[in-house]
Amino acid sequence: MHPNVLAQWFAICRSVDLKRSPRAAQLFGRPLVLFRTEEGVHALLDRCPHRHVALSDGRMLGNRLQCRYHGWEFEGSGACAQVPGSVAEPPRCAVPAFGCREQDGIVWVTPEGGAETGPPSLAFEGIEGMKQIWSDFTVEGTLFDAIENFLDPMHTHTVHAGLIRSEKKRSPVRIQIACEEDAVSATYLGEGASSGAIQQLFGLDIVRSLGRFRLPSIVEMEYWNERFLRCRIVLLFTPTEEAEIRVTAGIYGRHALAPLILPILKPMLRLAMRQDREVLSWKYAHESKYFGKANYVHTELDLLGPHILHWFRHGKIAGEDREIEVLL
Ligand code: FES
Ligand SMILES: [Fe+2]
Predict the structure, then answer these.
(1) Pocket flag, ligand 1, residue 53 (CB < 6 Å)
(2) In testing the pocket of ligand 1, which one of 45, 50, 65, 74 has its CB within 8 Å of the most ligand atoms?
């Protein structure tokens, strides 16, 4: 992973899921403990310097995190503030701390602690009046695998046959690829409702859709009708352990019939998710067992994948704006 990637902010959990007790998390294979004080949220290495017990098993004593073994107390900065039973000064030791902030209802952490900018903003135009549903789940594979999968339309005819698109009903669609410094996006024009059951049932008025990758590991998908943004999906990808990616997903919707639609739509989305998880874990198992570092063949149909791979390997988005026609 390029150092530019490690200097960014990653979503660890939703704010509502970090309550008064400390919480364990992982980021790039490192164990973290998250906790709240009056000053805000904090992320430390999940290891008591005394005997390496997990601090996430401890408890909060006011604004201090207390280790459950011998009761050492730590401040949000990681500094040791108190050793119970000792009349001497506490030892000059500190638990390594990571940059940690709360923004847009998400707790963000930066693994290398050096990001000068804050976490990426999740604000967007038109959010007023949209209903939000949040959930999280894990997928197996690399960060690249997981992200590309969500933005890749070309597997939908096979992996999600009939559900998202159908092989027998392909039609020409124009796609505009736009490369920015911190994002790369594909805008789909003239697809109408795609050929799968989901859009045939719920998205007949969609005239334009968009899939965007944004630094460091965010996917945004938008579905527009003639007048307004009908639905927007935000996916925040966080590498936890080797080949495990945690995804925090937000769906913002605007549909008068939402209460009727959701009970039917949810199982369909869950099925699509299961299909993707299966293909990703099967892909990762085979590749990591036999082939190691990826050396892929790309075609123009791999719309955003090569740009995303470039970011993770070289620390920047590269490429040119272009427009292509594909059969979707
Ligand atoms: S191991 Fe944490 S106080 Fe002893
Ligand atoms: Fe998929």
Answers:
(1) yes
(2) 50
Q: What is the pLDDT of residues 131-160, one digit of tens each?
A: 888 999 999 999 999 999 999 999 999 999
Ligand 1: atom nearest CA of 83 is: 3
Domain ranges of the chain: 7-110, 131-327
Q: How many contiguous H segments (helices) and E segments (strands) does the chain have?
A: 6, 18
Pocket test for ligand 1, best of 47, 48, 65, 93 (most atoms within 8 A of CB): 48
Residues 264-315: tens digit of each pLDDT: 888 999 999 999 999 999 999 999 999 987 789 999 999 999 999 999 999 9
Residue 66 to residue 173: CA distance in whole angstroms:
58
CB environment 12-43: b (16+ within 10 A), e (fewer): bbbeeebeeebbebbbbebbbbbbbeeeebbb
Q: Which CATH superfamily is domain 7-110 in?
A: Rieske [2Fe-2S] iron-sulphur domain (2.102.10.10)
